[in-house]
């Protein structure tokens, strides 16, 4: 499923985005891969009608013929006895018991535009493949991250990691506004000097020394589903920096779309609702 | 591109096979990933007509209007001047200079049936994901590898690794035939005892101690194109064991089909013709 | 700390062993690596006496001078006020919050002799480096695993994975004894045929087809502490096969000796007592 | 071999360094690991005297008793016939034939202080473990990289990657001096604003947006010898950026000291003299 460049870009922060390039595998392929161990293959999703063998995805009702309290299915062809639950049960078992190998048989490549600061955190995930814009080859475009007032004011008393230095003032809205202006001025200033240096013959790879870590860069990132889930677990967590958490949440939504059943069994342990 | 179970199985040895489950990415996506560094994207394959901009894939002729000896293209719309070669040139540059990251943005999952001995060699490739049939969960089917006379007689004088022990007789065709019979008897014998033990209540995970490494097992293996090429480089090499070389050669043919341009630039350094 | 070949071999099963080759890093280096993030370095183990600065490792008592219920230390030099807890607290925090990177700055190389069946399970741990004896280069020594009666009789009713096939008899002690004899005969038989084939000029790499997965092989395995803990978590677990569990438990004891404080904070989540 | 903090720091650029924290394994352990395949162990370095068995490391002479042109050794105890070359031969064979696994049984942890720009390149080596100072937890110290005039003037005509933008002036010494002043001013400016923001209550994780990629950070990096050699191959290469090349060359010198025989067999293929 190669979606090319027509694909939707999910906008993030003031200039960033996440875009699905391609996914491979599927919930079904995860089951098929897991079933290599017993050579049984994929058996189907959902309960099956015991009479006609069809899978069921309609409303469930109590089954009067059988065990009290057990729902049944009217398949419309005379069958109304469901069988054992389908392969969602195996999927859940695999996830809950950390049999993670089958989730390596599916994956996703995405494109990401984010501040260098965010990419620096992202690239600590060493099982991902990365291909990033390089300031050695091309001057970085002049796009820089300025956090919103709201974001700056996030009460971080519960999170030491997001904290201020000792002896700092308490951040006021006035000061937050001022910081945004300072940032903007500094970005403009840095860009002027960067362009000035480039024009003056300073090699790109050295002129970039001026560039602040708030500047945007672009990359592709690719890994398997197991490792995307590992990324989300760390980066959608409450103690992750707010910025990368926004990106991680979009990655989670892409997984939800491409691998809905895996998302379902994984979400609570990944801290997603 | 999920090809399901309908996919072709390439038969190997006496009972083995390799089957493509799925590939992802493409030669074009490899270029797109590489071009992240300069933000230029995919520019197209083949030379372009300088007049009309079309890519060219017809026969080449000398260009009478321009530099002698340089081929040109009659695009049929008045153009007959080709431009610089297309992105095959970048693909070749990436490969030749070991810029291997872009080749991680494509990949392949396959299913493999091979003797345990072969899987043992295969699983040394630790960048691949594996999911294998397990004799703890299910008794291994009774299929075992018996090399052909021809294979047994391969003159291994040039390859010490494929050699015989010191003081061994020189292998005769008669002895090769005899070895095949010995193997077959031993396989039958092992299966009898295996089944006997299983029936007698010996746990599957212990009954399997009897199983010889010539028995077939099945697995799925998945990794990116960079690492499949690394596999082929080692396993299609002349000093690789003949059996795994047959498997590796089929993997190479799957790459040739799914990623024809990468195959073209990689084949000579991978020792493929 | 290179312990060479004089090192202790922990015997396992009937012919196997685990032997420490070398460890590197230390509990202290793990702290130093973690403290890179705040540039603070290693602060010391244990509470310190606030008066004389010494670290404390004696019995704790309530501190009458200070907060009720808080233990104090009589350091013998007039000091009896402990300071903040030492770096064990950070070590525990790192482990409990899955900040696993610092545990990559220590590691261990071991040598292992185990049945091929066990090595097959072991080698699924792809972050480990392996170097194993090769039957392509040298005939495998004639040592084979025969489980004890006790081991064979392990009641596996609570563990489906360790189970028998459907319709199997219940294993009796008589049958277990018989299985041991069958195994032994089959091993002798296999060795005879293996040697016969080798003498007859069959290449080593093909003669080995006869060898059963109960035969012993030898390897070295090396990885960092984080990944050794991952190995133990899976392989010392109750649903791991009994044989590899014995090996994993010895690996755990080596970790206990080389990294006692890490062992202390990790043991309960690794399922070790 | 834990060298603690007393260890030598190799100064690099204007404020950077590389420092060995610890190495493990040895040339000898590499051989021992490789010899697992044949169960032969370490046989010794250098040729041996056939008469007395001693290893030889003195001057070689032609052996008059034996084959003409073959050097011999006068061991001083009557022996003067050398035996087969020692295990350097195997070490060279392993390296030349890319049998790289044995080189995973040795490794090195180092501490590195370098501009963020350099660490960004470094961290692309995903087999290394990293632990870096974090500007989320602690304000980054005010140290920034200003390239020397000499470095700025490096004629980069032969290296497009180190090049200038199209239409740039040719860099003069005057302009290089000016760029250094611009950089310095910009660094001072950035630090003022950074401190200002921190004091005003902006969380550390956001105040850092101002910090330029020329600022120094500190990290530990750890991996095995195989992967350190892979790092050096890419980063000591002529087309690597000059700055990281200086770091890579120091890493190479650490390898030379800890693993002198490996360095010897590897250096030419790594592009080292």
Tell me what you see in this structure.
4 copies of one chain form a homotetramer. Chain A has 273 residues and is α+β, with helices and mostly antiparallel strands. Chain A has 2 domains: 4-44 and 86-147 and 215-266, Gyrase A, domain 2 (2-Layer Sandwich); 46-85, no CATH class. The first copy, chain A, has 9 helices and 7 strands, in the order ββαββαβαβαααβααα. The first copy, chain A, has a 5-stranded antiparallel sheet. Chain A has a two-stranded antiparallel ribbon with strand order 3-4. In chain A, β3 and β4 (71-72) form a beta hairpin. The longest helix of chain A is centred in the C-terminal third of the chain and has 27 residues, at 173-199. Mean pLDDT of chain A is 87; it is low at 1-6 and 61-70. Chains in contact: A-B, A-D, B-C, C-D. Chains A and D meet through α3, α5 and α6 of A and α3, α5 and α6 of D.
């Amino acid at each position: 499923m190669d979606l090319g460049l027509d694909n939707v870009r999910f906008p993030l922060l003031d200039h960033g985005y996440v875009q699905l390039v391609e996914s491979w595998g599927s919930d079904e392929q995860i089951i098929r891969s897991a079933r290599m161990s017993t050579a049984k293959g994929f058996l189907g999703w959902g309960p099956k009608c015991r009479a006609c063998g069809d899978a069921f995805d309609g409303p469930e009702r109590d089954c009067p013929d059988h065990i009290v309290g057990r729902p049944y299915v009217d398949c419309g062809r005379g069958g109304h006895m469901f069988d054992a639950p389908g392969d969602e049960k195996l999927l859940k078992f695999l996830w809950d018991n950390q049999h993670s190998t089958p989730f390596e048989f599916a994956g996703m490549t995405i494109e990401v535009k984010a501040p260098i600061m965010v990419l620096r955190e992202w690239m600590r995930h060493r099982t991902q493949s990365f291909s990033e814009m390089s300031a050695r080859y091309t001057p970085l475009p002049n796009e820089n991250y300025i956090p919103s007032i709201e974001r700056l004011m996030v009460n971080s008393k519960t999170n030491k990691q997001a904290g201020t230095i000792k002896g700092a003032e308490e951040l006021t809205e006035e000061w937050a506004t001022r910081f945004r202006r300072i940032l903007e001025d500094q970005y403009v200033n840095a860009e002027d000097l960067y362009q000035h240096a480039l024009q003056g013959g300073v090699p790109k790879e050295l002129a970039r020394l001026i560039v602040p870590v708030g500047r945007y860069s672009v990359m592709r990132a690719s890994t398997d589903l197991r490792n995307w889930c590992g990324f989300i677990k760390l980066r959608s967590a409450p103690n992750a920096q707010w910025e990368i958490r926004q990106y991680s949440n979009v990655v989670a939504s892409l997984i939800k779309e491409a691998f809905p059943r895996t998302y379902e069994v994984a979400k609570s342990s990944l801290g997603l609702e």
